Amino acid sequence: MSETIQADICVIGAGSGGLSVAAGASQMGASVVLFEKAEMGGDCLNVGCVPSKALLAAGHAAHGAPQAARYGVDASVQAVDWARLRAHVQGVIAEIAPMDSVARYTGFGVRVVQAEARFTGPRSVEGGGIRVEAKFVVIATGSTPAVPPIPGLDGVAFLTNETVFDLAERPRRLLVLGGGPIGCELAQAHARLGCEVVLVEAKTLLGTEDPEAAEVVRLALRRDGVELHEGAAAVHAGPTGDGVDLVVRGEAGETVLSGSHLLVAVGRRVGFEGLDLARAGIETDERGRLKLDRRLRTSNRRVFAVGDAAGGAQFTHLAGFHAGIVIRNALFRLPAKSDPVLPRVTYTAPELASVGADEAALRARGQAFEVLRWPFSENDRAIAERDVDGFTKLYVSPKGRILGAVVVGTGAGEIVSLYTLAIAKKLKVSDIAGLVVPYPTRAEVAKRAAGSWYVPKLFSARTRRIVRFLMRFA
Length: 474
Description:
The protein has three domains: about 5-145 and about 270-330, FAD/NAD(P)-binding domain; about 155-260, FAD/NAD(P)-binding domain; about 350-460, FAD/NAD-linked reductase, C-terminal dimerisation domain (Enolase-like, domain 1), CATH 3.30.390.30. About 30% of the residues lie in helices and about 25% in strands. It has helices at about 15-25, 40-45, 50-65, 80-95, 100-105, 180-190, 210-225, 315-330, 360-365, 380-385, 410-425, 430-435, 445-450, 455-460, 460-470, and strands at about 5-10, 30-35, 110-115, 120, 125, 130-140, 145, 175, 195-200, 225-230, 235-240, 245-250, 255-260, 260-265, 270, 305, 345, 350-355, 370-375, 390-395, 400-410. Strands 1, 2, 3, 4, 5, 6 and 16 form a seven-stranded mixed β-sheet that branches. Strands 17-18-21-20-19 form a five-stranded antiparallel β-sheet, sandwiched between helices. Strand 17 and strand 18 form a beta hairpin. It is globular, with a radius of gyration of 25 Å. The mean pLDDT is about 95. It comes from Thalassobaculum litoreum DSM 18839.
């Protein structure tokens, strides 16, 4: 080693979680060394959240022009210039990149080492000719696209979310394998940009979401021209002269789907190859995941894990939350635990957002609850915008406490934050029903749904009798 550094914290991985730990700890006075073997900003900036939302924005813009007729405006899309579209996506990444750059973090006082790192001892990490002896180490190595063991797939030049944004030309016919959030978002974006799109899902589209809400998204995808094959397992893949064939097996037997490109979007996997975890005394379970306690500590109590590396839900906002837990534990010796109220959003059009317990989970644990709902078709802002697909739904305990919530519709990802706060702070429907919400906004659906809790009592025969009696003395 050409250099040995003594540091308070060593972070491995410069994605969202790792950067949050590094910036926070350094600005609070800790000495920090950050290793990153690839690009600063990790998956979210370079191949995930940022480029996918930029592509979705382009798709929504292309979709909006033909829809303008419903407002009395004639508009159309002449053509999609794929080179300019790609430049737009890359431009968005470039605009955000300085926030995650080596220069910025160096300015925070972080020593950034652009090299692959590995453990050489319980608190020792080395890479790029540098050895770091740290008081605490944070594993923030993210995840990579999962590749299913489909016969023949290794002979196909398939795409993942890490490569799909690099396409120089528009896919003529895109096969999307996987009907989760990533698959649905990218399928819809490409369909709205003029591609033929076929989506294949072995089970049910958005199967972890509320079925009624997922149905709203399903109908939207079909309206946009996405050909859906649910309950269809891919059993073979192979190259053709101008693309790829995917053989899928469903209830009706086997079907051959042909496309110019294949996008594999079946989730992401977490791996720790090359880290030499054993040399640090870090244990993994039978599935290769880190064994963590609620404080995000590994079996080596001086080593933490954040973000995807922690093995739970794979969200950028969760990685940021994890960073706060680690900083409180490592810097301030506070026994902070990771037990967040975690919202999730699928950024299709309409968006689908949820937080807290869902109906199936509540029934499974025998929880008594009532369902409150309000449709966007009865929301003035949605009506004015001619965009009324979707609804909100609340699960409420007998005492009025909010247990879970679902929103599907335009702006669902914004509205769900209100429910997240309500669940985290153990608020009741009365707290939301009593809010003064700006008119006209889509957030009114939350107030309306909460207010419906009181309708049976407020407009009952008993209430009418009481009012008539009191009015005698008015």
